[in-house]
Amino acid sequence: MLEKLTELPGFAKRISQFLLKLIGNQQVASDDFRVMKLLINVGAIEGLQFYVDWVKTNHRLPRTYDRLLNIRRLPTTEATLLFAELIHFAFQETIETDRFDEPIDIFVHCLKELTITKEGLYQAVHADLDTLLQTYPTHPDQAKLRRNLALFEQEYYLQKVDCATLPEALVGLETWIP
After folding, report:
1. pTM of model > 0.70
2. Which one of 24, 48, 74, 75 is least enclosed by Cβ atoms within 10 Å?
3. Per-residue pLDDT band at 116 (split at 50, 70, 90)
4. What is the distance, to the nearest Å, from the Cα of residue 84 to the centroid of all Cα atoms in its chain?
5. Strand partners, 160
6. Contact at 8 Å (CB) between 70 and 41?
């Protein structure tokens, strides 16, 4: 029922407050990812913090990657910092997974979703990940992060390119050709 209410205007703040009260009163299990999903759906950064804390405590990814699909509803700066924290954690500790996706791939993908259209934020994230690569030059995930960073950079610059429609292109060609 709460999932349906998150879709209605005006209920997000109430649902967030209710769920946070449940967490505060310890009436929610520490691995109840329904709460995390609902908090993320209503744009509460505490949902992502719940996920980050769980990953760092258990050193593995939960089977709930799909729960992060609404991350664009979260405050961008705070969510970006949390995903950067997870990438740093993944470089310092082993994170187990039972999927084909690797933690680095998932976390960089989430960072990309949050920052791809944010000029200053993209630059800061890129610099941070570049520093991480320099800090751990022999890390086993070095190549994976480099590949992800290159794809991230490519997508960033591609989305900045203005594409003309066919009629606009024809008008542009007419001005070039005497």
Report:
1. yes
2. 24
3. confident
4. 9
5. none
6. yes
- How far, in whole angstroms, is CA 80 from its chain's centroid? 7
Cα–Cα distances in angstroms (integers) from residue 139 to residues 83, 88, 92, 112, 144, in the given order? 19, 12, 9, 22, 10
Q: Is the pLDDT of residue 9 over 80?
A: no
Q: Which two tokens stand for residue 51?
A: 């996920």
Determine phi and psi for 96, rounding to 5 degrees: -80, 155
Q: Phi/psi at 60 (nearest 5 deg)?
A: -155, 165
Nearest to 122 by CA among 131, 106, 107, 111: 111
Domain ranges of the chain: 1-71, 75-162
Nearest to 33 by CA among 19, 43, 18: 19
Contact 12, 6 (CB under 8 A): yes
Which pair of structure tokens corresponds to residue 45?
Answer: 């950064």
| In 7-99, beta strands by DSSP E | none
The distance from CA 140 to its chain's CA centroid, rounded to whole angstroms, is 22
Cβ-Cβ contacts under 8 Å for 40 (sequence gap 6 or more): 47, 48, 51, 67, 68, 70, 71, 73, 74
Q: Which two tokens stand for residue 49?
A: 């913090």
Distance from C-alpha of 149 to C-alpha of 42, rounded to nearest angstrom:
29
